[in-house]
## 1
Amino acid sequence: MQPFTRNHTCSKQVCRQCHKRHHTLLDIDRQIQSINDKESVTIVPADTKGSSTAEVNTYCSFKGKPRNQILLATSIVEVQKNSGQYVPCRAFLDSASLSHFIKQRCVQRLRLSRTQTHASIQGISSVNSETYHSVSLHLRSRHTDWHTTRNCANLSHITGTTPANKLDISTWKIPKDIKLSHEQFDQPGDIDLLIGADLFYDMLRLDRRTRPANYLVLQETFLGRKLSGRTPATSTHHDPQPTFMLREENSLEHN
């Protein structure tokens, strides 16, 4: 190929492809470009200019195996405020506790006065803690005429969220003709009170129902029917789910 000058004349050679007066390599380049244009199909958004990248993402997720959980007994009990009004509080019924406890935030909400009372608390594996105040509470049931007054040790924290995850109860077939001690037992929530063994067994009544396969127990109490025990196997929204992503990137050029 001859270099370009002002007095440039067309090539003296004839193209072997089209027989025109230019170098054969120029015609081969055009053919290659034509082939590429036919084989490459690219979709670019109307507002895209210059070069961009097209991504194709594929997400795969595997649900965890359904498993049983243990539902702890919770109830709604009405507690009297300093003004005389009653406020519903969420109580955890614990037959293994020697004392009753109330959360500090609940004491503030009820605007109750505290009494200086020192007590040592020993838990599992000899884990010790202490409390320095107590509160006198008047409790009553929403469904019966049961009521009582008890001293509760004041703690900043009683236990974690109960239950830990939202439960799917759509297949549990809970009888509709009963009054539950806690209608939203399947919803995670904070515990305001812990009612210990001093009251636990006094609140029980005779009627007791169980589900097939030794699942949940519906125990009648003065606070209403409490649900506790092993739940049917279920998957929760918070169960770990192995997930991976496949990504394909294609470089696009748009003139």
Note: Residues 70-230 form a domain with the Cathepsin D, subunit A; domain 1 fold (CATH 2.40.70.10).
## 2
Amino acid sequence: MEGLKDMGIDDNTLIVFSSDNGPDPSFQNARTASMRGQKGNLYEGGIRLPFIVRWPNHIAPNQVNTESVICSVDLLPTFCKIVGATLPTTFSIDGEDRSSIILGGNNVERTKPLFWEFGKMKANRVSPHIAVREGDWKLLVNADGTKVELYNLKTDLYETTNVASANSTISNNLKTKALDWYKTAYRQYADLGTGLKNTSISEEIGIFPNPAQNHLQIQTSLQNYTTEIFSIDGKSLKLQGINATYVDISKLQKGLYLISIEKDGNKYFKKFIKE
């Protein structure tokens, strides 16, 4: 803010204050307003965030909107609408224009569902790793279709009662949408092509952290595998020994890379970012 004030543009700059996930730790949900979950899972405490907007002379101050649902995927179409920019047409836009709400208008119901995915490879996963919200309904499910949980956030914001079995039509509909999204839209961009032939990104391998600075930790159920790092165009850069779980990447330049584990002639790949 001080920098904007120093340049004299603070009153003509749209500022958004938000976050990428819920708190960790939650201190027994004291930091999530008693909502279930925290950073690292898909309950409301892990994905519902503050969203504060400032734009003097355009947005009246001291307004509070507790009804409208806005997600980070909405920011691109919303900002494009506000500044009169044309949306790109080379890929499908997940979000939708919410500019009328941000500028202080009344709530407008969403026309698209929202989707999340996080934690499939986490050993201590708390929630299912896929979620979808449509209207007041929110469903969580694993990629294999197990652990279906359904909540009506209008009547059960704290996600205390799983009503999937009592609302089978809604549950099945949202489950289908969630799994279709995961298998198509989500995997489509996770599996972007590389310089290696027949390369697909595998769920057999998990890497942490990602992005990473000096090292990667590998998580997999496979045994007796070798590990290799490639540039995104397919050049082999580093070969590790058998069953490596810790990989030193400190000498790599910043950028996007592939790491693979190979077992019995099969290679399983994951992308990572070196910061």
Note: The mean pLDDT is 89.
